[in-house]
Every structure is written in structure tokens, then in C-alpha cells.
Amino acid sequence: MNRSMTTRDASAIGTQQKVFCVEALKLYRNLIPSASFRILAYIGLWTVIAAASAIHWWFYPQGIYPYTWWELFGVKAAVWYAWGLLTPLILWLGARFRIESQLQVQRSAILLAGGLVTTGLYLVTYTLLILWLTSQQPQEGQFESMLAFVISRHSTYYFLAFWAVIAIEHVVAYYHRYLERERLTAQLQAQLAEAQLERLKNQLQPHFLFNALNTVSSMVLSDKKSEAYDTLADLAELLRISLDRDQSEIVSLQEEMEFSRLYVSVMARRFPDQLSVDWQIDPDALDAAVPNMILQPLIENAIKHGVGGDDKKHIVTISAKVDGMLVHFSVVNPVGKITPDALPTGHGIGLTHAVQRLQYHYGANHEFKVDSNSEHFSVSIAIPYTKHQTARSLGDRDQKTIARSRH
Description:
By secondary structure, the protein is α+β, with helices and mostly antiparallel strands.
């Protein structure tokens, strides 16, 4: 009856399989929160192992002492349940005296001693269970002889099993540490990216306010009080929208157009006879998700370099359209007070920030293109088309904004 059992070699599993196992364990814990159910599942696990061991022994030659299936299963269930009761203790030892880099020798010695004691206790229990379940008439000296036999046949197996449980505990613990480090690293990277993005927005808003207030200042100096009042009202509305969307890094194109039209209305009062804007907006693109205030620096750049150098009327064309899986934006302005050769190769703060924000949101999956010749300067953007959840149809407020900004 007491024959050594063979074990199957565990096959190596890859990283994806490990991740699957961990995720499956998390799902199991979420779906089965009951402690009593987990205990039953734990008992069921050792029952399956006992049944597999009994099947193995059922087909193994039993000599002159044959057993029925249920007798054999009862013996195997008893010895495997005993090992199942010891397993939590072994896991606790592994967690309590986990082999760390600074305490390898001391903790290895403690676990070695723990393995010897645990294995010895189990082999004594194993022997008692075998005698109790299989002996009809206990004989003098039977325990000693049986214990000697069990130790000679099973001590190495169960001592290695002890270390296998310790190894499993260490692997799971280190893997959890790895996942936690990855989670913290990803969290820190996200926080850093958000901080950098917030810094860009904080730099952009004062830059925008400076230009807007400079426009109001010019009106006041030119004794255009009524225009200055209207401009301040539009500026207040711009600030309100900016504050409302301060935590929204992504908005719909429609919301972006509302902000852009207000900005154009402010700048148009500064150049009433020189600036005209041609809006070429595809209605199908209004629900597209775009970075907040992505058009404003492009429009500002177009007005700065295309208007004000002479008394002519200059048309700035702002377009947006959906083309397949992409949404395209472009701002085109005539080259006014500067020549194409004089345009800064590194762009200004607004365009630089636009490039950085596009890189943050889309990585390499976007296009930012600057084109210029003797007649015009254009900036175009292409990003993946995704529908924004809060996109809405043009309301009365949008219509009023459009009416005020048509110049």
C-alpha cells in the first residue's frame, strides 16, 4: 500500500498565461467573495487530487492486499487532506520568513528547519492514518516499522513538496510586487503627463489673455469705448467657458468652435477693416472629439502673421472636415506683414504647445503640417475621428455666438 507516488512535471507557462491566471484569480475573488465557498473550493481541490492519486494506485499492482476503490480513495483522501491542512502553515512560513536579499542566509536556515519539522510531523500523521485506516489488528512494533518505511519512501518527496509550496508563495508574492510596481509606475507616469499637460495649459492661457487684453487696451487708447465694452463682454464669456472646461481636456468640435468664434469676434474688433474669417466647417465633424483649445493657437498665429501689416482685407480660412477615419483641421492665412522666409522655423509658443498636446493625446497617430509660400501660410492637423459623448446640436446660445462673430 505504501508505495511512492509519481508526480507530473509542471510545464513552464509564459508571461501571458501568468497574467491570465492572475486575472482569473481576481475575477474568482470578485465573483466568489464568500469565505465559506472558498473553503469548500479548497476542500474540493484536495478531493480532486486525492481522487487522481487513488486512480493512479488503483491501476498499480496491490500485491496480496487488494483494496476496493472506496477503501483506496478513503486512504488517499485522508493523507491529502492532512497535507491540505499543513499547506496554509507552510504558506504562512513562506510569507513570514520570505527569502530577501539582505536576510537570505538567516531565513533560508529558518525555512530549512521549518521544512524538516513540518515534513517530520506530516510523516508521523501519514503513518498513523495509514495504520488506522488499513490495519485490522494492530501489532506490537507495527508503528515503528511503518514509520521507518514511510520515512524511507516518502521523506524526500514531501520535503521537496514543502519547498515547492514555499516557491509558489515566493513566485506569487514577487509577481504581485511586480504588478504593484507596474501599477505605481504607470500611475506616476500618468500623473507626470497630466502635470506636464497642465503646465502647457497654464502657459497658454496667460499668453492668450495677454493678447486679448492688449486688443482691449488698443481700443481704449483709440477711444473706441463701445467696442472695448463689447470685447470685454466676449472676453468674460471666453473666460467663463475656459473655466467651465478647465478639467475637460477633450471636448467636441462644436464646443471648440464656440470658443474659437468668440475668440475671433474679440480679435476682429481689433482689425475691423482688415480681418475676415471664412468658416468652412463640415456639419458631420461637429461631434468629433478634439483637444480643448487646440484651434485657438492656430487662429492666433494666423491673425498675428496674416493681418495688420497693411490696409487690405485679409481672409483667414478655418476649415474642418471628416475624411474616412480622420478629422482634418486647417487654418490658412495670407502672408501679410511678414514674408514666408521670416516665419519662425520653430513656431511660436502656441503652435509649439499644440504639437506637444497632440503628441500627448495621439502619439504618432496624428499629423501636424505647416506649409507656406509667397501667398499664404497654413497649418493643418489630422487626428483619428472619434465621436464625443457630449456633442449636441447648435442651440440658441451657439447661434448668438455665430451671429456676433461673422465678420
